[in-house]
Design a protein that fits this description.
With 373 residues, the protein is α/β, with parallel strands linked by helices. It has 17 helices and twelve strands. Helix 6 links the parallel strand 6 and strand 7. This is Nitrate ABC transporter substrate-binding protein.
Amino acid sequence: MNITSSPPERTHLRLGFVALSDAAPLAVAALRELGARHGIAIELCRQPSWAAVRDKLLSGEIDAAHALYGLVYGVQLGIGGPQADMAVLMVLNRNGQAITLSRPLADAIRGGASVKDALRTLERKPVIAQTFPTGTHAMWLYYWLAAHGVHPLRDVQSVVIPPPRMADALVEGALDGFCAGEPWHAVAEARNAGGTVAYTSEIWPDHPEKVLACRRDFAALYPATARALVRTMLDACAWLDSTAHRTEIVQALASETLLGVPSRLIEPRLVAADGGAARALPVRFFDGGAVNYPRVSDGLWFITQYRRWGLLDADIDDAGIAASVNQTALYRDAAQAAGVALPAERHAATFCDARVWDGGDAAAYLAGFEMRA
């Protein structure tokens, strides 16, 4: 029997997610029962925070999850919590995140003030939230602040808050800003608590964001199941390439069981490019498979940032770690069976500070940063 046609060892899978618009592929897969043709059924399990996603992945209460790319690497490296061998099965989306600051700060920046000068008007350390200590949002926020001459560890108080709490905390005055996913920036603007000042696609155009993650032993014990899950999610991501389909899934995402946010606040930044902002790139889910390949260099980039900000100083094989986490062989098997094209292994990206990352020389790349921990 061809390995890619082996029946899944597990047929019922519990998938964790946090209330964010980019959980759309999981919603599509479950609601449209896309796993049926691949021999699996999906049960969605909403989680209150990324810490809960981590804990339930580790305990086995959920089998896989919509997860922050950096969450997977933080657990793999044992940074700030339990260590476990983790697996990135595929990328679920690119772009679609943002940085929102309180209304006075956002107005000052829109009026021409630099980010550094605007934050100095507070005459105290700004309190800016992200969603997980090693997560994507922490890394986008730190990179953006540093690019604007603001040290993210010394000049700012960075705190962790679950995404659904962001807008409330900004309204209450507990925060001066936050970096998270949608629809919470749209919610903050609708409540007149803040304004979006940067889109993460401006920091790293077409950056990887959420991934399909599981423990590595799950992928090893149930490889046919993992491949079936990847094929199901590729089908869901491809379905989301249609504007009409995105508009359709917004109604489901608005439900209390998924996001619990009015569809009018979800739709603009999911269907269009972050509400039609000229400088933002749209959230991407598939694009013929260009979105989904778990490129090892993407994982390695997160490790460079952990070293940059003092979260990691161990003498380990960074590239080897990334190669073990990102399940490129499993993904290739699933994608080839599905007829999905595989992109190039190497890809150069130019960041907002004009630095270029291609995964080639991580040590030299890291040494080139003037602002570090």
